[in-house]
Specification:
Strand content: under 5%
Low-confidence stretches: none
Largest sheet: none
Shape: elongated
Number of helices: 6
Mean pLDDT: 91
Length: 177
């Protein structure tokens, strides 16, 4: 255990985790909405009607959202590790917390893999003079990464929000009022 249960470390870690998660999930959701504008509905093909300047702006916005998502995810990950190690909550008594931790940590390898692709998009956007074809290739690789597993991960992350709100599988409180 990193800190005593009465220590404020777990509260600080919880705050960092919540704020970082909001930024991360918001950035990832925005990136998905923005990027979806470039694709034909139901396909992985790019729309032909978009002007190159419009595509470049969409790629810029995707890169900005990726630049927010990467450090936010890392902060959420670090905050969650410290929170679980330092909090007085026992996973045995708080099934919702155990389920949330499992859903979050099972997708860490997926996030690291896609984060590398996101970092390349950010690098190409802000540190090179790459054309739209480079971004199309990186964007397509990001979308096709791991056969859709990142989409399943996002659904799990939104499930964690519901678990945290409703807290199912919580051990009954045996104290009498």
């Amino acid at each position: 255990m990193l800190a005593a249960p009465s220590s404020p470390a777990w509260r600080i870690a919880l705050f960092v985790m919540v704020v970082a998660s909001i930024l991360w999930l918001g950035a990832v959701s925005c990136r998905a909405i923005i990027g979806n504008d470039m694709l034909k509905p139901g396909t992985m093909e790019f729309e032909e009607y978009l002007a190159p300047e419009a595509e470049a702006e969409i790629f810029r916005l995707v890169a900005i959202m990726s630049a927010v998502a990467i450090p936010s995810y890392l902060a959420a990950l670090a905050g969650s590790i410290i929170f679980l190690a330092a909090s007085p909550f026992k996973l045995k008594e708080h099934g919702w917390l155990a389920m949330s931790a499992i859903l979050f940590y099972i997708f860490v390898p997926v996030e690291v893999f896609t984060m590398v692709l996101d970092a390349r998009i950010v690098y190409e956007q802000f540190f090179t003079t790459s054309d739209n074809n480079v971004f199309k290739g990186l964007f397509r690789a990001r979308l096709e990464a791991l056969a859709g597993t990142p989409v399943i991960a996002m659904l799990c992350y939104y499930t964690i929000v519901g678990l945290a709100i409703f807290q199912p599988l919580r051990a009954a409180d045996h104290t009498q009022s």
